[in-house]
Each structure stands twice: as C-alpha cells, then as structure tokens.
Amino acid sequence: MLSRYKKIVEKFDLSGELVSCERYGEGHINSTYLVVMRDEGKETQYILQKINNNVFKDVDGLMNNIRLVTEFNREMITKRGGNPNRESLTLVYTKDGKTHYFNEEDCGYYRMYLFITDAIAYQKIEKPEYFYQSAVAFGNFANLLAQFDASKLVEVIKDFHNTKRRYENLINAINCDKVGRVKEVQEEIKFATGRKELCGKIVSLLESGQMPTKVTHNDTKLNNVMLDAVSGEPVAVIDLDTIMPGSICYDFGDSIRFGCNTAKEDEHDLSKINFNLELFSAYAKGYLSALKGSITKIEKENLAYGAILMTYECGIRFLTDYLEGDVYFHTTRDGQNLDRARGQFKLVSEMEKNLDKMQEIINNFEE
Ligand code: ADP
Ligand code: GN1
Ligand code: MG
Question: Does the beta carbon of 251 sit less than 6 angstroms from any atom of ligand 2?
Fold first, then answer.
C-alpha cells in the first residue's frame, strides 16, 4: 500500500523518506491523506489530496485558481507580519514545478499542501466562542479576497450556488428515477417542491446588480477553517476549490447551515437535529465585526434568508444525489445522502420558524 503512494509522493518537491500515508479528514469531495516524511531524524507532515475530477472537470483551471489565491494570500500575510505557512494553504509543487501530478495508474490528479500545524478543523462546535472565531476567520478571508482581481479566476463549477439550477437538477433526477428510489422519498420531494419560491431571490438580486457580486469561498463549513488547538483563535481558511464570484449571503448561510446544527450533518435520528440560535448569534457577531463596514444594506437584509437558502439548496443536492445513486458526495453507508437531505430539511423548517429572530440579531448588531 505504502509503495503505491511512495511513487506519487516522490513526484513532489519534498526531502526525506516517506514514513506513512493514511486517509485523513472528513471532506465529501476529495480524497485526503496525511503524509509523514522523515528527514535527518525529523518528521514533517503534509496533506496529499486526490482531486475529485468527477466534480472538478477542469483540474488545470482549478489548480491555477488555487495557485493564484494562495500566492496572493501568502504575500498579504507576509506583509502584515504573519506566518504564511500556517495562516494560508501552501502548495508544495512537483519536482518539475507543477501545481499537481497526474498519475496514469489510477488516472488520478494529486496535489500536496504543507500541513497546518497545531490547529483543528472542527466537525461540530458546542462552544459559541469557537464558532465566533470561525466567523472571524471567514470574515477576514472575505476582506482579503475583496482585494483580489476576480477576473483572473475561472468559474470551476458553473452555477454552483444557483439554487434554481439545483432545483432543476432535482426535478430531472425525479423524472429519471435512475435507481428506483423516488417512491421512498415522496415526503422529501414534497418538502423541496413546496418551497420552490426560495430559489430565485439571490440569483435575481445578483443578476440585476442590486446585490454586489464578490469573490467568495462558497464552501464555508466549519471543517474548512482551522482554529488554533490551544487558543481556539482563527489560523487559516482551507478548501479553496470553490473560490468563485458569488454572494456573501452564500458564505454566511453555508456556515450557519453546518455550524448551527445540533447534530452531525448525516445524523439519522432527526430528533437530534435542531437549529441553535445562540450559535447563530455568535457567528453573526463574528462575521459582521470582521467585515466591518464593507457589507451593503441589501446583503445585510438577506443574510438570515441566505442561511435558509443554503440549507435548502444543500438538502436538494443531497436528495438529488440519493436519487442518482450516490455519485457525487462521498458516502460510507447506505442511506447516508438521504439522512443528510432529511437533516437539512429539518433545519430549514426550524430556521423558517426562527427567521424573524435571526434577522433581528443581525439588525441589532452595532458596528
Ligand atoms: P474536501 O474538499 O474533500 O472537503 P478539504 O480540503 O476540506 O477536502 O480537506 C479535508 C480535511 O483535511 C479538512 O477538513 C482538514 O481536516 C484536513 N486538511 C486539509 N488541508 C489541510 C492542511 N493544509 N493542513 C491540515 N489539515 C488539512
Ligand atoms: C462538499 O468538499 P466539502 O466536503 O468541504 C461540497 C459543498 C457542500 C458540502 C456539504 C465542491 O463540501 O458544496 O455544501 O459538501 N463541495 C462541493 O457538506 O460540492
Ligand atoms: Mg472540505
């Protein structure tokens, strides 16, 4: 097994010998490995990732985005006296200077990052303070990206947060019923189709120019930010695959959908899934304080709605994948995507009941 990875690891510009290479983390898209190298008695960790090229069709475009964004971030962090190896993702290039390596044996595209040390990517946070800190991290990251020239980036996944398209994909999946699961998810289909009107609002506001299009992360879940293992303070934002033009309501909303859930994303027992308003408040405070004055009125008015939208959209995506036979999100057990979809829909219902309170928390925030 190790020899299989040795051949891949050797293509990257690292010194020393390979000690181990094991599956790592809980991402749904790429396959992540923790690599340990030993050089003159000293062990150093790295992250190796097999890029999911079923999801990311243009790997060269994707990796060029990541190269540009990480180089930009590293320069900005260095200028402000920070440590770029810890506060930014840092690519380890191949020995021939490329951002990634194509391995013919498994037709896999691989990339390598420096390992961000003494930091944790949480799956779930009970302590509002940590969630607050993750909001500060994403808010600061948004500020940094505001200075980045968006025209340099390719749109890695077209219509990524275009909820109308996501809805159309669900309808197609229902009509095709590829793996014969439609009959068992009638309730979920009813839930999704009953809220069709949720889909269009932010897309229309962006299209009409009423809401500013910004460079956004687009996958701001808690396990895509690293917090200091001791202090809990923000260290780095990771998982930069989906950086694209979008709305900050998407970024805010996606964080809320994942972090304010009292249970795991794939919890089977729906009674454990609730929306935690205290965590919402902590996140809103952290995000708004980091963004300072850069948020516009229309964005602020749609942050709480963005949370419902992102949760609904994600539920639709999980349900679509379930109906298509679990081909997009990694699954480790039967029914996992259906549990994920049900969980998101339960959260949507709870957020709907809390919408006024959520908006009030945002309105009451004093800069
Ligand atoms: P995916 O796109 O599949 O979600 P991620 O890039 O988010 O993959 O990586 C999965 C997990 O691996 C993260 O949640 C985090 O725990 C860990 N990870 C990724 N990159 C690093 C890094 N540079 N240093 C430390 N841990 C990392
Ligand atoms: C995926 O890559 P990961 O696990 O951070 C997905 C997100 C979903 C999320 C749901 C490229 O994120 O859009 O919101 O799962 N990423 C992609 O947990 O589709
Ligand atoms: Mg991730």
Answer: no
| pLDDT level of residue 367 (50, 70, 90 thresholds) | low
What is 5-63 written as a DSSP string? HHHHHTTBS--SEEEEEEE-S--SSSEEEEEEEEETTEEEEEEEEEE-TTT-S-HHHHH
Going by alpha carbons, the residue nearest to atom 1 of ligand 2 is: 28
Q: What is the pLDDT of residue 62?
A: 98
Question: Residue 184 contacts by C-beta under 8 Å, 6 or more apart in sequence?
Answer: none
- Ligand 2 contact via 222 beta carbon (within 6 Å): no
- Both tokens of 342, joined, read 């049900």
30 CA closest ligand 2 atom index: 2
Which residue owns the Cα nearest ligand 1 atom 5? 239
Residue 240 CA to residue 342 CA, distance in Å, equals 27
Residue 366 has pLDDT above 90, yes or no: no
| Contact (CB, 8 A) for 266 and 340 | yes
Q: Which atom of ligand 1 is found nearest the CA of 114?
A: 23
